[in-house]
Amino acid sequence: MKLEFYNSLTRKKEEFTPLKKGVVGIYVCGPTVYGHAHLGHAKSYVSFDIVVRYLRYLGYGVTYIQNITDVGHLTDDADEGEDKLVVAAKKEKKHPMALAEIYTRSYFEDMDMLGCVRPDISPRASGHIIEQIELVKTLLEKGYAYEANGSVYFDVSKFKDYGKLSGRNVEEMLAGVRVAVSPDKKASVDFALWKKAEPNHIMQWSSPWGMGYPGWHLECSVMSMKYLGETIDIHGGGIENKFPHHECEIAQSEAANGVQFVRYWLHNNMVTVDGQKMGKSLNNFINLKQAFSGVHEKLTRGYDPLAVRQLILNSHYRSPLDFSDAALFAAQSGYEKITSTVIAVRENAKSAPEGEVSKEAAKELEQLKEKFEAAMNDDLNTAVALSVIFELVRFANGLLEDSGTTAGVFNAVDDLFSSLGGDVLGVVKDEYIEVGGASDELIDGLVKGFIKQRNEARSNKDFARADAIRDELDGIGIVLEDKPEGTVWRRK
RNA sequence: GGCGGCGUGGCCAAGUGGACUAAGGCGACGGUUUGCAAAACCGUUAUUCAUGGGUUCGAAUCCCAUCGCCGCCUCCA
């Protein structure tokens, strides 16, 4: 089976073929950096991280572009309202660009924690004002836009395909207008390409139409065009951006270039928290730093970033995902199960008897790999792909109990964990340095001292003392496990 | 009000006309193992897929109605 994506544009699953053989250009709408990234960002960017990782796994050369929106958009569409970056900047008493810098760094930090590969280019909207002005000029020259009172608007009536992505009908939209129409616009559906700035507006640039700033949809058109060309293979983003944002991107880009803008539109669904929409006023707004640290009244503990990632992968990217403390807890347990098995496999690979992979093991691993790829090829069904990883865990644990398992088998199992669980899903790490690593030498020495004392107590049948030592260590987050080959410790 | 989507075991979630008497994870319970645990392994845990009708030889999957939730129609991943 070939790789298929559900294309929002055609509303069906389609086999994926890139425009140019072997290479893929993908553009994903990035964050507006006026606050820390939250669970919704995590779902979106982990989802597209999987797209990039899987395409690379399949051997494509992928160019991954994800913008950073550091020019705030208006807080409403009635030509009123304030730039939301500016609003946040005032509140924190910082220059908007300083604020953008703070939250851009915070964003990358959180995405690194979640194991998302960095985009090849993270273009800033503020760094592409010239290109944006050029696009507006082109649209004016071609008659798709008009200037009014220092602002420039896109004339939707000139672009026949408007509405093709979101399934909206321009006449119906005109009939059902709820927002007050700006006096400068010819029609309520027209959208701003360039906005005139009031003198006190902090972020403004000079243009042929006077001082102003770019409209909200322009940057994505401009930056995808600049780095990926006029027609790009994949454009990703949140489903809430289908309209108006992506619809407007199509209009601007296709009007300017006269060619198809995006071949495959991929949209991820939203998150809820405890079954409710996540909102600042609902007190269920959880950002990633809170999820990782557990400092939030909805959370009973902090969660491993990769456990958060695993929870996201446990459902389909086009399905809504409900975050709750219980769901995170379950994901954490499952993540730890995978982790401990991978570590055990790698340790055993070093001490196991020499030997090649057995035919039976090789066959089993091949079947798991095929099942995994079939799931991923079906519009990235990570939930099923993850279940294959759990099948591999069970298979591996069976091998671990068999003292006859050879190093060759363990290495083959590790290879599959590393490629499917690591390279593709990103929930298996290359190295686990938390336990027994150089940074842990002191702790390791101390814990081993306690283990020695406890085992002396055990051999003297002084189980009360033995259990007391174990409980004491458990209280500070260290778990002891008595294995046939001796007692080992790990962090909780 | 208009448009789109969803509702599967105690919880999360895949499956979207016949191989479903419904994956996988978490939790719970029983067993193996253990001094007892932990971890691991084995087994049990939905005759049923929001509710009520209908189509079909056959429906979780299609249609209609009802209830609930989510998204878009104003920036938002």
Residue runs with pLDDT of under 50 for 5 or more positions: 75-80
Taking the sheet with the most strands, its summary is: 4 strands, parallel
Mean pLDDT value: 89
Q: Strands of the biggest beta sheet: in what spatial order?
A: 4-3-9-10
First-residue to last-residue Cα separation: 41 Å
General shape: elongated
Tally the beta strands: 15
Helix content: 40-55%
**Class of secondary structure makeup:** alpha/beta
Order of helices and strands: EEEHEHHHEEHEEHEHEEEHHEHHHHHHEE
**C-alpha Rg (nearest Å):** 27 Å
Please give the count of helices. Answer: 15
**Beta-sheet strand percentage?**
5-15%
Structure description:
- This protein is an alpha/beta fold and 492 residues long.
- 45% of the residues lie in helices and 14% in strands.
- α4 crosses α6.
- The radius of gyration is 27 Å and the shape is elongated.
- It binds one RNA strand of 77 nucleotides through α1, α5, α7, β12 and α10.
